[in-house]
Amino acid sequence: MRVDEEVVVIVRGLEVVVERAGGLFLGRRDTIEAFADPPVFLGRFEGRGWYAARARPSVELPAELAFASVRSLFSELPEPTLHILGRALAGVEFAETHRYCGRCGTATQQDAAASDGRELSVGEQTRRCPSCGLSVHPRIAPAVIVLVERDDRVLLARSARFPPGRFSAVAGFVEIGESLEQAAAREVGEEVGVQIRDLKYFDSQPWPFGRSLMIGFSATYAGGALTPDGHEIVEADWFSREQLPDLPPKVSIARRLIDAFVQRSAPLS
């Protein structure tokens, strides 16, 4: 692979470097040493090898560049690129937190990248100890997200972390020893106080915030009074498709769940 076929995303926490004139900044491996650590391989996309590198502490970017949160780019970048940015955030964090072997203390190395030249081929993120041979894989936290339906309305909730006025489906992480179905019922019960039935798988989505895999479900209301827990959820209500509140961005599985409900419920013309 030629150098000009390789691009690097520069990461700082949950931010990436962008061009002030607009667009994601894609550096070259031979030109980023001044403000970034050695890059890790992410995979191949659009005929290029994609890498990610952590910005050096207290780095001063050139005037034409700036940091931007990945969340702020949801409406600006195509979904495949956003998925690559999710890999970039997770890949840099994994390399940083697993620099040394937990068994013998030797500096770890990224395994040889697994790329067969096909588009969207994912790079192997395993880190291996060259001394004792221990291999460590990135931790991916499974999470469920559930859209509950009742009488042609859907249950939407507002997290304390959301912007004012934004609502979404109920979501939460799977606990040790739980099935996905058990986690879905527990999260809905704990966060908004209702019971569900007829749980149906919808889709899944890797999600960079929390390094999680979101597994989406639809469900039917089975009982209970709507009671937000006041901690994770500060407000919840039933909404018809004609009166939906501010919703998550279209790239999210939450929005896809809601859009699918709207399309399925829409009257035939």
UniProtKB/TrEMBL annotation:
Top-level taxon of origin: Bacteria
Keyword Magnesium annotated: yes
Family matches, as InterPro entries: NAD-cap_RNA_hydrolase_NudC, NADH_PPase-like_N, NudC-like_C, NUDIX_hydrolase-like_dom_sf, NUDIX_hydrolase_CS, NUDIX_hydrolase_dom, Znr_NADH_PPase
Reaction catalysis annotation: a 5'-end NAD(+)-phospho-ribonucleoside in mRNA + H2O = a 5'-end phospho-adenosine-phospho-ribonucleoside in mRNA + beta-nicotinamide D-ribonucleotide + 2 H(+)
Listed EC numbers: 3.6.1.22
Cofactors demanded by this protein: Mg(2+); Zn(2+)
A GO molecular-function descriptor: hydrolase activity
The entry's keywords: Hydrolase, Magnesium, Metal-binding, NAD
Keyword Phosphoprotein: no
Nudix hydrolase domain: residues covered: 138-261
Family, per entry: Belongs to the Nudix hydrolase family. NudC subfamily.
Name of this chain's protein: NAD(+) diphosphatase
Protein source organism: Sorangium atrum
